[in-house]
Amino acid sequence: MTAWTIAEATQEEVKSGELGRRLRHFNYGFVGEYPEQRYIRLNARDGNGRLLGGLRSFVFLCWLHIDVLFVEADVRGSGLGSRLLAEAERQAIELGATNAKLETFEWQARAFYQKHGYEEYARIEGYAHGFYLASMKKTLAR
């Protein structure tokens, strides 16, 4: 029997990316070689430098994965969220993405994403205190 030890990864181990490289090389045997994930990180500021919103995402295996899209309440409805989303999609297409996906809570921006062509493909009811989490996707236009 093999004796194992399981411990928290050190910062150096995380930064090295070794675990991800090992998985990527394993995956190559199934889907061929592909680039490492590439990040798209956008901020929007006003003339005084105030952070009004931003977007955090990455492209991996031809998919744009949107992690965070946030716009301050006092500028919602101004088109800023739409511009952030469009710029992320534009950059993702340049990086080879053909699709996009995200998750949003029931109280967040499901209707906003639907307006921009995203469709719900899965839902987890009761994910957070009785609210559902919607998984959404979109085919990106080239």
Task: Please provide a written account of the structure.
It is a single chain. With 142 residues, the protein is α+β, with helices and mostly antiparallel strands. It has helices spanning 11-16, 18-31, 80-94, 110-115, and strands spanning 38-45, 51-60, 63-71, 99-105, 119-128, 131-139. It has one domain (16-139): Gcn5-related N-acetyltransferase (GNAT) (Aminopeptidase), CATH 3.40.630. The protein is built from 4 helices and 6 strands, in the order ααβββαβαββ. The chain has a 6-stranded mixed beta sheet. Helix 3 links the parallel strand 3 (63-71) and strand 4. The mean pLDDT is 95.
Record field, number of beta strands: 6
Helix count, DSSP H or I runs of 4 or more residues: 4
Average predicted local confidence, pLDDT: 95
Q: What would the CATH topology be?
A: Aminopeptidase
The amount of beta strand, in percent, is 35-45%
Low-confidence segments: none
Report, as a whole number of angstroms, the end-to-end distance.
54 Å
Helix-strand string:
HHEEEHEHEE
Radius of gyration: 18 Å
CATH C-level category? Alpha Beta
From the spread of the alpha carbons, the general shape counts as globular
- What's the CATH architecture? 3-Layer(aba) Sandwich
* Share in helix: 25-40%
- Main sheet makeup: 6 strands, mixed
Strand line-up in the sheet with most strands: 1-2-3-4-6-5
Give the oligomeric state: single chain
Name the CATH homologous superfamily: Gcn5-related N-acetyltransferase (GNAT)
